[in-house]
Amino acid sequence: MIRYLEIAAEQGNQIAYNNLGNHYELNDNYELAIHYYQQATDHEAALYSLAKIYFKGEGVEKI
Q: Are 7 and 28 in contact (CB under 8 A)?
């Protein structure tokens, strides 16, 4: 299933970007989750999830 989402994301599908971000966030791979959420700039849920990761400080450098 992930491969199909990757194919859809390569074609610019915003929902696929969001779903890939969700998958990687749930598996604690925040670097990839952030990458995919950042690609989904027109998807509100992805932007919310990205903000949530930044707020919690997961997968980002803390200063």
A: no
Distance of alpha carbon 54 from alpha carbon 60, whole angstroms? 7
Q: What is the pLDDT of residues 7-17, one digit of tens each?
A: 999 999 999 99
Residue 59: predicted pLDDT: 84
Amino acid code (one letter) for 37: Y
User: Burial letters for 33-49: b for 16+ Cβ neighbours within 10 Å, e otherwise?
Assistant: bbebbebbeebeebeeb
In the block, residue with structure tokens 């969001």: 18
Question: Tokens for 20?
Answer: 């890939």
